[in-house]
Amino acid sequence: MNPAPQANVEYFFRFLYNLIYGSHASLDYATFSSFATQLWLWIVIVGYALSVIGLFFIVYVTMRLFELRAREEQHYRTLLLAPDAVGKASPRWRHIESLVEGATASEWREAIIEADIMLDDLLTQQGYRGDGVGEKLKSVEPADFGALQDAWEAHKIRNQIAHEGSAFNLSETLARRTIAHYENVFREFGVI
Fold first, then answer.
1. How far is the C-alpha of 181 from the C-alpha of 150, rounded, in Å?
2. Fewer CB within 10 Å: N-end or C-end of the chain?
3. Which residues, 6+ apart, have CB-to-CB distance to 179 below 8 Å?
4. Is 0.85 topped by the overall pTM?
5. Which CATH code for domain 91-188?
6. Using one digit for the tens of pLDDT, what is the confidence trace for 150-179?
């Protein structure tokens, strides 16, 4: 069996030495050193230029991001306003009512989920903090919220729908009762 060929490192270094210092070499150490110095100088200059351009780009993108967030906040804040006239149902609530009047369970599920989103917005407007409706409801004082039990009952049904999806057997009676719980909450706060 023949041994595996090995690289001749000495040959490689001798080749480099001859290339730089050899008799036919067009490149001596002083020329190479001068070239390397000039190359390094250009690398540094280009690096600084790219750094400055990158810094300006980061500042520009950050400013645009803050502008976008301000516009988004303004846009979505206007969507959460209560209806102008007292006693008039909000367009969101009318949409929820039209969904619950539908003939399919998917419409009823959508109505309950939309009502829960509306409840989340209401709780946020009232100053309650938390990651979701459940955490916000936990921070509510029962004396401040007469329909708190209605909110919990409705939110429990919404959670079952969210976790079980179409496997959750939602009857028309349960859907109407759940929407009635949401309606009690919204009437207490004058949203509808």
1. 5
2. N
3. 96, 97, 100, 111, 112, 115, 154
4. no
5. 1.20.120
6. 999 999 999 999 888 888 888 888 999 999
